[in-house]
Amino acid sequence: MAYDILAKDGRPIKKDGDPIKAMDITIEKIEQLDNANKSFVAVASTEDEDRHKDIVRQDGWKLTNFKKNPMIPWSHDYWGVPIARSLKTWVDKEAKKLMFKPQFDADDEASMKIYNKYKNGFLTSFSVGFRDLKSKYRNEDERWFGGTEFLEQELLEISAVTIPANPNATVSLNGDESIQNLLQLGYPQKYAETEHGLFYPIREELGEFINPEVKDLEDDVEGIQGVYANIISELKEDGSGGIAIPVGYYFDPEIWSTVGIKSWINDNHDKTYKFHYYNWKWIDENKDFEIEDKEEEKEIPDFDEPIKITTPNNVPLAVLGDDIDDNDDADAVSHQCDDGSDTKKIIEVLDKHLEAISNGVVLALEKFNESLFEIKSLLNKKTVDSDLQIDDNKSNDDLDSSDDDDKSNSKSDDDIEIDDSLLSPDNDKNNDNDIIELDDDLLSNKDDTKIAVKSVFSEKLKETLKEVRDSFKIEV
Fold first, then answer.
1. Pair type for strands 307-308 and 192-194
2. Are residues 161 and 223 in the same domain?
């Protein structure tokens, strides 16, 4: 995989405005070992497709500047002392390989240690650092995952590396290499559809940030959580200090569309931000180089469509739409139902969707209500069944709805009682609290009946569902 080279503080390294990229190769063996001169011949690059479908065309190498200063650093460390130099660098056009002959410094203990590791087979990898001069996507329809074909590239250095050789694998902060930046943690640099919501970065240089925290916004906007992180270069040697700034947001896809997300980003952020990077600059008539700190204004990323990714397990996750109190979490953690499902998740679903569940049932009852007028005409006795009763203590009026003149004669104290015990957590429970009373005057007006059914059933359903939720008792 071709990746951008980052400095230890997470900043990208560029040359003439283009990111310096690297691509690794594991060699099968070293050739022409010259132990007296501490040198050998090895392969630096091939035209093989890597696992990310990237390809470097070997006839596209530009070697002029590299040959003037053929340094070989350790793991793309441009600030340290080189461990070796290349005595000869060339492209084997027939084999389609970039070849080189490194010579290690016999007077340098560190250099000799690395030389012996290669000689004895403990190190087997090299990595080319290059500037992309001409390239194209191998698949225009799958730019993110379809791979890149590098057609022309300027060789800047060849590094001795371990496996994996990606210098972004660790961030050194006062000797602590366990701290990972946002790229290493798996945060995407593009607008992405993740398992935890739509992630929209407002900074593309995520390798510059560490210590991410996902939290709600101060104004409590529904369906959005911010990712805040520290800039590595602003932290003290002990890792303290610095101010956490927003680097991206998780959006609930059920609430937010791409258009809405972009509009919210534009309304809540400046259009540009300060971007820091290191610039590779040739000096001494291209015989040496230096790395200078640069700063420029950069526009906030603008994305049209999200890509789909899988978020690694160690990424702090957004919890969009979660209304569970912190105290509820403590009681729910680690409890398992008999079928292996998570009790906490069940409670979350019931709490989060209580309104929707209730509304859904009410909608179903509306359909039932359409038939209520026909049912009324058939109810000529007090008890229809054990669950639906007509309590008519003062009147024996015929309930035939075909007699329109009698509609206005309905008694105000004629009630329809519906036993709702079937909705209860315990179907055997039957008491006065399980009776929903509706004045049958309402049945003369379809709209009034709908409103009454919605109101009464909605409240009763919420009550019942809460009882169901609270009735979960898990034996641990």
1. parallel
2. no
pLDDT at 195: 83
17 and 158 in a single domain? The answer is yes
What does 271-298 look like in DSSP terms, one character per residue? SEEEEEEEEEEEETTTTEEEEEEEEEEE
Task: Give the side-chain half-sphere CA count within 13 A for 346.
Answer: 21
Domain extent at residue 372: 353-470
Helices 354-370 and 343-352: crossing angle, nearest 10°? 60
User: Which residues fall within 8 angstroms of residue 98, CB to CB, at 6 or more apart?
Assistant: 43, 44, 45, 46, 58, 61, 89, 90, 91, 92, 128, 155
Sequence-ordered list of residues with C-beta below 8 angstroms from that of 203, at least 6 positions apart, any chain: 209, 247, 248, 273, 300, 301
Say how many domains are in the chain.
Answer: 3
| Residue 344 · residue 335 · CB < 8 Å | yes
Q: How far, in Å, are 89, 107, 396 from residue 43 at the CA level? A: 10, 25, 102
Domain shared by 210 and 240, yes or no: yes
Contacts of 227 by beta carbon, 8 Å cutoff, 6+ apart: 182, 187, 199, 212, 213, 214, 246, 247, 248, 249, 250, 316
Q: Is the pTM of this model over 0.70?
A: no
3-state secondary structure (DSSP) of residue 156: strand
Same domain, 155 and 54: yes
What proportions of the chain, in percent to the nearest 5, are helix, strand and coil? 25, 35, 40
Task: Report the pLDDT value the prediction gives residue 449, as an integer from 0 to 100.
Answer: 63
Is residue 248 assigned to a domain? Answer: yes
Count how many Cα atoms sit within 13 Å of the Cα of residue 67 in the half-sphere of its side chain. Answer: 10
List CB contacts of 11: < 8 A, sequence separation 6 or more.
Answer: 205, 207, 208, 233, 276, 277, 278
In 3D space, the residue among 455, 451, 410, 408 whose CA is nearest the CA of residue 436 turns out to be 455
Does 231 lie in the same domain as 273?
yes
Structure-block tokens of residue 173? 């902060």
Report how far residue 12's alpha carbon sits from residue 280's, in angstroms, rounded to the nearest whole number.
Answer: 11
411 and 265 share a domain? no
160 alpha-carbon distance from chain centroid: 33
**Does some domain include residue 347?**
no
- In this structure, how many other beta carbons lie within 10 angstroms of the beta carbon of residue 356? 9
Query: Residue 284 falls within a domain, yes or no?
Result: no
List, for the chain, all residue ranges whose pLDDT scores fall below the cut of 50. 165-175, 321-341, 380-413, 420-431, 473-476
Q: Give Cα 85 to chain centroid, integer Å.
A: 42
In a domain, 435, yes or no: yes
Q: Which two tokens stand for residue 183?
A: 């790229």
